[in-house]
Design goal:
0% strand, elongated, 9 helices, mainly alpha
Length: 259
């Protein structure tokens, strides 16, 4: 640590800046890892449950994946990147100087963070597969009769899963700004993050509603009710994260730990 003067407040400011940088690195990792774990679980769960969910391709004897490679690539390169980069300039949280100093042996990704990552990833995969299942006949969560050919149903189901996963990750970006503090504290303090979220939403709308991109990404325009389903299912990620954080804060308070 290099100081510009002998003022004690400079030391405090330097420590604060170091903690903010470290926090932002953890936010970046928490968001990207939990989002990618969600994608892995979605593909794995979709393949394992393909038979009971109706995720099949007529005339094909091989494995039919729930989301196409182009859709996953779109998520990773475009809708993931901007929010992740915006977290690098996230402002400090209120408790940044109230915590005890870290030990030299502490890991950047500790046990609690891995549990958080796995938990969010599982929730993300579950809501994505549920959204797909709701648009396929004879699935696990619905057994309603759905009109149209099986090929059209698969395209619509994939569009639902694709969109739910994108919005689930955007909700996850909001939730990942702190491992303990509610996402609603300082919700709009990072204008870059909200700009990144807005850009990701626009890009997703382009993929769904621009005709020549429908063929490239195997998507189809969604109706109003389908959007309600997408937003509600994706929001479960934020709700689950808030519940998890509330439980962890209660445990920390009981143990006399400052989060």
């Amino acid at each position: 640590m290099i100081l510009a003067d002998d003022n004690f407040s400079t030391i405090v400011a330097a420590v604060r800046e170091g903690r903010v940088i470290f926090d932002n690195i953890r936010k970046f990792l928490r968001y990207l890892l939990s989002s990618n774990v969600g994608e892995v679980f979605t593909v794995f769960g979709g393949v394992m449950l393909a038979g009971v969910m109706g995720i099949t391709q007529p005339g094909s004897e091989g494995v039919t994946v729930p989301l196409l490679a182009t859709q996953l690539l779109w998520i990773n390169l475009l809708t993931d990147a901007a929010p992740a980069l915006a977290m690098g300039v996230d402002p400090q949280t209120d408790d940044v100087m109230a915590r005890k100093p870290r030990k030299l042996t502490d890991r950047v990704i500790d046990r609690d963070m891995w549990i958080d990552i796995a938990f969010i990833g599982i929730i993300m995969a579950a809501v994505t597969l549920i959204g797909m299942d709701m648009h396929l006949e004879g699935g696990l969560f619905t057994d309603r009769s759905i009109g149209g050919s099986h090929e059209f149903q698969m395209t619509e189901a994939r569009t639902m899963g694709f969109t739910i996963l994108v919005f689930a990750q955007l909700f996850n970006a909001i939730a990942s700004r702190s491992s303990r503090q509610s996402a609603f504290v300082g919700l709009f303090s990072n204008k870059w993050l909200w700009g990144a979220i807005g850009l990701s939403v626009v890009l997703q709308l382009v993929v769904i509603y621009v005709p020549f991109l429908n063929s490239a990404f195997d998507t189809t325009p969604l109706g109003p009710w389908a959007w309600v389903e997408c937003i509600c299912l994706a929001a479960v990620v934020l709700i689950a994260s808030e519940i998890y954080k509330a439980i962890m804060r209660a445990i920390d308070k009981k143990n006399g730990v400052v989060a």
